[in-house]
Amino acid sequence: QVQLVESGGGLVQPGGSLRLSCAVSGFTFSSYWMFWVRQAPGKGLEWVSSIHPRGTTYYADSVKGRFTIAGDNAKNTMYLQMNSLKPEDTAVYYCNTVLLGAAYWGQGTQVTVSS
Question: What is the pLDDT of residues 82-98, one digit of tens each?
Answer without folding.
Answer: 999 999 999 999 999 99
